[in-house]
Amino acid sequence: MIEFQGVGYGYGGRRLFSGLSMSLAPGSFHFLTGPSGAGKTTLLKLCYAELRAPEGRVTLWGQDARAMDRDAVAMARRRIGVVHQETQFLDHLPVAENILLPLTVAGRLAEGHGNLRELLAWVGLASQAGQLPPELSGGERQRAALARAVITSPEVILADEPTGNLDWEMSQRLLTLLVELNRMGKAVLIATHDLNLIRAAKQQVGARILRLRDGRLQAAGADL
């Protein structure tokens, strides 16, 4: 679905990584770890064509990302759900409307109303549907962000430090939801510093651990 072949990227003359190759296959579960500044967020942005790789090749469902026009990128992004590190809600809209925004923007709002109640219940926010985002706790915001990411029924879920500001109990709840999505056949890629979260996930799902360090992407060992 998403494939990197010899990809390199840098900012302001500083190379973040080079020669990076990986593949997100249907139903796979990956963790991406590594030190701050290694390029984890950049790698995720390359996955959904927010950035374009100047070196190597990124393909989204067989299409070279560099050759995709705006419409092609928009179509590909409908197949990708992204949970950002900062939840990026519109604070003047209630939670339910924020969750529906991807469908609203795509002109597919009618598709969402039938699934919204079930989705809110699944993330444990049925009673918060009418609240504004500032009224939610950190854990509730992250679960709402996950609901927004999956409202379009994507094939791939990308999550950037989704538990970075959560306590352990709430991190476990979010992980459970992501594992459930993977068991439904979704490919999941989570960027995280939280090694305890990775260890907990490995007890539930066959996760592959990737470490981005010193400009290279490597499979992490069993010491995690």
UniProtKB/TrEMBL annotation:
Give the UniProt keywords, A-Z.
ATP-binding, Cell cycle, Cell division, Nucleotide-binding
Read off the InterPro entries from this record.
AAA+_ATPase, ABC_transporter-like_ATP-bd, ABC_transporter-like_CS, ABC_transpr_LolD-like, P-loop_NTPase
A Pfam family of the record is ABC_tran
Domain named ABC transporter: residues: 2-224
Cited PROSITE patterns: ABC_TRANSPORTER_1 (PS00211), ABC_TRANSPORTER_2 (PS50893)
Drop me one GO molecular function for this one.
Answer: transmembrane transporter activity
Task: Say which domain of life the source belongs to.
Answer: Bacteria
TM ranges: none
Q: Which residues form a coiled coil?
A: none
One GO BP annotation is: cell division
What's one GO-annotated cellular component?
Answer: plasma membrane
**What is the designated name of this protein?**
Cell division transporter, ATP-binding protein FtsE
Organism whose genome encodes this protein = Rubellimicrobium mesophilum DSM 19309
